[in-house]
Design a protein that fits this description.
Layout: H1 6-27, H2 30-35, E1 39-40, H3 48-60, E2 64-66, E3 70-73, H4 75-82, H5 90-98, H6 101-107, H7 130-143, H8 145-155, E4 164-168, H9 174-181, E5 185-190, H10 192-202, E6 207-210, E7 222-228, H11 236-249, E8 250-260, H12 271-283, H13 292-301, E9 308-311, E10 316-321
Parallel strand pairs: 4-5, 4-7, 5-6, 7-8
Antiparallel strand pairs: 1-3, 2-3, 8-10, 9-10
Helix pairs in contact: 1-5, 8-9
The protein binds S-adenosylmethionine.
S-adenosylmethionine (SAM) binds next to loops.
Length: about 325
């Protein structure tokens, strides 16, 4: 991604164009059609000149092969499609949002949509749109299997049998369910419309508390409070206050575990934290990717001991014990 030669900026533009083409083909169901076998270009259902102009891009990035008349998926294209790795139509909406970067730079986020309404969400969910909330939580649930198992593998040696575990902003509940299935007592805290969703998935395998984690009683005492993908959606002062409230809800010796993406000391990476910060700028009122240094300061101010930092595949897990 670094701008090192005069070709690199051109490559960025090419990548953005390729993203738009692949996302639109996905949205139109064309890759799904190609998964069944070769298709005549004239039967793709596309404008003829648009097809002849976009197919070279798809051939260039290695997703399709064929000739002027017939198009077919390459083995790499099929693998990416089957693994769910191809960008979907949601990226077209993201590109529309990104086209408003200048407004966001001048006036701040969240971004305003085509309808003139703010696109701000509470951690990706919206009380006024249960269908969009369910789509978002389904997507997170589907992509959390290995992260939930890894998180549990790191944290379970720190827990006695039948510990009380709070999943704050637990959403779809996949993380907490792993703890509950291992015999711990799980409590999922989230907004009422999300608890309704989580209850549908987990029934009475876990307990639920509905509320706003900035205002409502958090319950407890707990032995472990997990915050997975939570603090990046909040402002600095909110995180600091939330950690103080959590410390009060923990039993003596209890731990907080924060799984998130953190900027390095130079705030120059890693890429996932740097770029995900943009999503938070566009979709939340005060969110951004925090740095490890910020988190250390917030934890100390809330009365936690020095944190342990565990590097996971894409995220980090920061664990601190109530002093
Ligand atoms: C990005 S999702 C993370 C879900 C899950 N922890 C994970 O890692 O996949 C953020 C969750 O925090 C919840 N959330 C955001 N703001 C909240 C608030 N003020 N009070 C309670 N829950 C909140 C959202 O409803 C959502 O379920």
């Amino acid at each position: 991604m670094k701008l090192e030669t005069d070709r690199d900026a051109t490559e960025w533009v090419y990548a953005a164009k390729a993203l738009a083409v692949v996302s639109a083909y996905m949205e139109l169901g064309i890759f799904a059609k190609l998964a069944a076998g070769p298709v005549r270009v004239s039967e793709l259902g596309l404008d003829a000149r648009a097809a002849l102009t976009t197919l070279p891009v798809l051939r260039h990035v290695g997703l399709v092969a064929g000739d002027a008349d017939v198009v077919t998926l390459t083995p790499a294209g099929r693998r990416a499609l089957e693994a769910g790795d191809l960008p979907t139509g949601r990226n077209l909406e993201a590109l529309r949002d990104l086209s408003r970067m200048k407004d966001v730079l001048l006036h701040g986020g969240p971004v305003v949509g085509d309808d003139g309404k703010s696109k701000g969400t509470t951690g990706g969910t919206r009380a006024d749109d249960p269908a969009a909330t369910a789509r978002f939580l389904d997507m997170l649930y589907a992509s959390s299997e290995s992260a939930a198992a890894t998180t549990f593998a790191w944290l379970s040696p720190m827990l006695a049998a039948r510990s009380r575990v709070l999943d704050l902003g637990g959403g779809h509940g996949r993380y907490l369910r792993v703890f509950a299935d291992a015999g711990h007592h799980g409590t999922l805290f989230d907004l009422p419309h999300v608890v309704t969703y989580a209850r549908g998935r987990h029934g009475d395998a876990i307990d639920y508390v509905e509320g706003d984690f900035h205002e409502s009683p958090l319950g407890g005492p707990y032995d472990l409070a997990l915050l997975s993908n939570i603090i990046h959606g909040e402002g600095d002062a909110e995180v600091e206050r939330l950690l103080g409230r959590l410390a009060a809800a923990l039993a003596p010796g209890g731990r907080v575990a924060i799984k998130d993406m953190f900027l390095d000391e130079q705030a120059a990476g890693p890429a996932n934290a740097a770029f995900f910060g943009l999503t938070m700028l566009f979709m939340t009122r005060a969110g951004r990717s925090p740095s490890f240094a910020q988190l250390r300061g917030w934890l100390a101010a809330a009365g936690f001991g020095p944190p342990q930092v565990i590097l996971l595949e894409t995220h980090s897990l920061v664990v601190a014990q109530k002093a």
